[in-house]
């Protein structure tokens, strides 16, 4: 990836933020202009790609993906509630989809309770919900960062095939994306609410909470996050109880090594050569790998996670000392999320969707005029790399997934694709961290506790 500090970037990005300008709460420059028929073109692109993805990846092949699991869980919960021995909603929710936070479980139960009581209609309801979330984020991108940001988002979600349509992950991804846009605009209070909502749906958006330090109104931002979080916790406890509130955190505590995880790559290669490892379907609804070398791989993943946390803390501290400029926000977000993904013992195809909003925001920022815009070429290189990784992920699942579950003639090729995708994820994460470090610059004389805070 091209260095973020290249001097041959387009001239509109040559202006760098001064130490003083980066710490001000000035509004960023407006979005790239919508000229001529650009609105119609972008809307047509979004609608066309959603229609194409729906037909090719869902309706043409009769794909249900996780919506069938959601449907079965919702049906069982509704049946349990209707039983003569039924308990409260709290009891029902405590048993339904414990890996999801309570608000997400409610959301997944709602279509069934509202009449989508067969797999096909339930799938349609989930697709409607995910498409609406996709549309909301696309509109936010368009209104704030311009058409290039929206088209980048469309490209990435299209490259992921049917996953954005059929997985709940679209909702927390959109919420985290909206939060990042609001942080770029220095609207930390609203960003805090968006992060709280995203966390209530799938926990991981809390990873980007350090970005709420952007701007001088950081106290308001964190108070907003805390208050919103407390409200959601109270509602969750009321609806599902304390055990249900904590279940998303405890549910995966004993998980093994998922076959797609970066740490599983060596074990998967040995499995492909029939060297003692084996694949099994675990109680966590995932394919995991076991056998010689797997405990060591899990230990290596934990050590890597500690190193990644330290590196991310150092990066955020550098950003704080520089006065929290907006230029590196997209890269910082990619680094934080990417570090979590590449060091986790679990890695599923939809995790790539977590990265897409940050890349779209980054490219949207880079397409604007002004000193707060990140350099264009490194931003574009980041987008292209992520798009390639999304395509490879779609090749892995659903195209070649069977070859990763049983050894066939296609298994060697599938393992090569898996290795390329996982190595690419590590490269993306490290390159994003380097780009964020270089672009941050700014006033290194300030200490975090010396930065002004106002409510």
TrEMBL record:
It is a multi-pass membrane protein. GO terms for molecular function: hexosyltransferase activity. The chain crosses the membrane at residues 38-58, 122-141, 148-166, 191-214, 221-242, 297-317, 329-345, 379-401, 413-439. It comes from Propioniciclava flava. Its main location: membrane. InterPro entries: GT87. Residues 1-30 are annotated as: Disordered. This is DUF2029 domain-containing protein. It is found in: Cell membrane. Belongs to the glycosyltransferase 87 family. The lineage of its organism: Bacteria, Bacillati, Actinomycetota, Actinomycetes, Propionibacteriales.
């Amino acid at each position: 990836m091209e260095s973020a500090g290249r001097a041959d970037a387009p001239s509109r990005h040559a202006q760098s933020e001064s130490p003083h300008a980066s710490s001000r709460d000035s509004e960023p420059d407006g979005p790239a202009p919508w000229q001529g028929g650009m609105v119609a073109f972008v809307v047509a692109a979004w609608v066309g790609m959603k229609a194409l993805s729906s037909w090719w990846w869902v309706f043409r092949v009769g794909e249900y993906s996780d919506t069938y699991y959601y449907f079965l869980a919702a049906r069982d919960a509704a049946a349990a509630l209707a039983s003569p021995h039924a308990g409260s909603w709290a009891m029902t929710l405590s048993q339904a989809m414990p890996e999801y936070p309570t608000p997400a479980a409610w959301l997944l139960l709602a279509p069934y309770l509202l009449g989508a009581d067969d797999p096909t209609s339930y799938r349609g309801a989930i697709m409607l919900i995910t498409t609406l979330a996709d549309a909301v984020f696309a509109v936010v991108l368009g209104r704030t960062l311009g058409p290039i940001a929206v088209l980048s988002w469309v490209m990435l979600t299209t490259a992921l095939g049917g996953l954005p349509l059929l997985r709940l992950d679209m909702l927390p991804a959109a919420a985290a994306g909206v939060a990042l846009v609001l942080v770029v605009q220095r609207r930390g209070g609203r960003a805090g609410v968006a992060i709280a909502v995203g966390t209530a749906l799938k926990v991981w958006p809390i990873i980007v909470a350090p970005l709420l330090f952007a701007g001088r109104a950081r106290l308001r931002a964190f108070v907003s996050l805390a208050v919103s979080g407390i409200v959601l916790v109270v509602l969750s406890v009321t609806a599902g109880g304390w055990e249900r509130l904590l279940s998303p955190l405890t549910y995966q505590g004993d998980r093994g090594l998922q076959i797609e995880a970066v740490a599983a790559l060596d074990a998967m290669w040995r499995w492909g050569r029939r060297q003692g490892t084996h694949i099994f379907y675990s109680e966590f609804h995932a394919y995991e790998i076991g056998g010689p070398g797997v405990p060591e791989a899990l230990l290596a993943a934990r050590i890597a996670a500690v190193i990644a946390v330290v590196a991310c803390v150092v990066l955020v501290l550098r950003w704080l000392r520089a006065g929290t400029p907006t230029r590196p926000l997209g890269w910082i977000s990619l680094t934080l999320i990417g570090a979590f993904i590449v060091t986790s013992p679990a890695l599923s195809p939809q995790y790539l969707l977590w990265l897409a909003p940050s890349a779209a925001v980054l490219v949207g920022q880079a397409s604007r005029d002004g000193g707060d815009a990140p350099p264009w070429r490194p931003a574009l290189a980041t987008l292209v790399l992520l798009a390639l990784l999304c395509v490879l992920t779609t090749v892995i699942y659903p195209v070649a997934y069977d070859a990763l579950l049983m050894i066939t003639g296609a298994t060697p090729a599938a393992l090569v694709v898996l290795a390329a995708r996982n190595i690419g994820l590590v490269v993306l994460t490290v390159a994003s961290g380097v780009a964020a470090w270089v672009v941050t610059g700014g006033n290194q004389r300030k200490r975090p506790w010396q930065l002004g805070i106002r409510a």
